[in-house]
Amino acid sequence: MSDSDKHYQILKNFEKKPHLTQREMADELGLSVGKTNYLIRAVIDKGWLKFKNFRKSDNKIGFMYVITPKGIANKTILTLSFLKRKSNEYKNLKEEIKSLKKQLNQ
Q: What angle do CA 20, 85, 11 make, to 5 degrees?
């Protein structure tokens, strides 16, 4: 999975579940917490995501990730790119399966 695919997954996951911790995000992505932290920082540095503290406390429930308008626009671009790549993979797999079936029937 490319970094752009991972950025897409991060934005998609935080859009649905803004209260996810980095550890929970790492579990969802199947990555280490360190790699997930690196990817989240990259998305924040691009201005696509903000980290907010809604309560002045050490309680991590008071923290939340918020997708910025720039992040929403870029998520759309990443979604289209992801969809195009996956559609091509699907097409190639379909052709390969057809070819393998043909070989078995000979």
A: 20
Query: Do 64 and 24 touch, CB atoms closer than 8 A?
Result: no
Domain 3-104 coded CATH 3.10.28.10: no
Q: Are 74 and 46 in contact (CB under 8 A)?
A: yes
**What are the pLDDT digits (tens) for 55-97?**
655 555 567 888 899 999 999 999 999 899 999 999 999 999 9
Residue range 93-104, pLDDT digits in tens: 999 999 999 999
φ, ψ of residue 54 to 5 degrees: the values are: -90, -10
